[in-house]
Amino acid sequence: MLKSDITISSLRRTLKSLGYLFFENGDFNLNIIGIRTKSKVSNTFDDFICVAFKDGGDWNLNVYEATTDPGVYWRKHPMNRKGAAILVPGQYRGSYRIGAHQGKYDALVQAKTLPVFRDNNKDGIIDVGGDIDTGWHGINIHRASHKWQSKLVSKWSAGCQVLASPVQHDRFIKICKTSCEMYGPSLTYTLIKECDLI
Fold first, then answer.
1. Residue 38's domain spans which residues?
2. Is residue 182 within 8 Å of residue 54, measured between CB atoms?
3. Which residues of 128-145 are buried (b: 16+ CB within 10 A; e: fewer)?
4. Sheet of strand 84-87, all strands in order from the earlier edge strand to the far edge
5. Angle 172-177-181 (CA atoms, 0-180°, nearest 5)?
6. What's the CA gap between 196 and 198, in Å, rounded?
7. CB 21 within 8 A of CB 32
8. Which of 18, 68, 106, 177 lies in disulfide reach of 47, CB 3.0 to 4.6 Å?
């Protein structure tokens, strides 16, 4: 899947086809959308996090290289005895707020319970399906290294949604802060699969 495949119209059509809201009223009314690509073994930032919004009445779309899956390290050494956390695709209204990831820097932090699949066979391959574990898992949206754009996920994600580039992350958080100043502290996150994209 290429970045060029992702457009405002494709995201709008996809979310509406899934029965999700696509926010179109007002500037900085953000559509934060993760796209999980089909790879099951990758340890690279091969997913996307998109932000679609209006600014001055004109549509903007930012597409960031990211991961929506835990890195191979945490798949083989899960933090939770139930297994590595993999966020279930869906739309989660008001599920995030600006906060400090691990108390260190501004990120989006989990503000409501979220559902995850638990991958516990420790083979390094992403397993989705089966029982769903809903709760407070610390599934944040944050960056990898603060110094450079990361190539490997490794320990950067144990289930979080992670942007590869610190520069892009800072831009993303700035947009989120502008939105929160206008609409309040809660932000909606929608996670879809590559095969959903119209």
1. 3-196
2. no
3. beeeebeeebebbbbbbe
4. 84-87, 114-119, 132-135
5. 150
6. 6
7. no
8. 68
Residue 114 to residue 139: CA distance in whole angstroms:
8
pLDDT tens digits, one per residue of 88-143: 999 999 999 999 999 999 999 999 999 999 999 888 788 888 789 999 999 999 99
* 20 φ, ψ (degrees, to nearest 5): -100, 160
> Taking the model in full, what pTM does it have?
0.96
C-alpha dihedral (30, 114, 5, 126), degrees to nearest 10: 160
Q: What's the CA gap between 182 and 77, in Å, rounded?
A: 41
DSSP letter string, the chain: --GGG--HHHHHHHHHHTT-----SSBT--EEEEEE-S-SS--B--EEEEEEEEETTEEEEEEEEEESS--HHHHHS-SSTT-EEEEPSEEEEEEEEEEEETTTEEEEEE-S-EEEEEE-S-SSS----S-EEEE-----EEES-SSS--SB-TTS-SS-EEES-HHHHHHHHHHHHHHHHHH-S-EEEEEEEGGG--
Q: How far apart are CA 23 and CA 12, in angstroms?
A: 9
d(CA 96, CA 119): 24
> What's the number of domains the chain is made of?
1
CA-to-CA distance for 67 and 89, rounded, in angstroms? 13
Extract the tokens encoding 113.
């319970």
Rounded distance between C-alpha atoms, residue 140 and residue 137, angstroms: 9
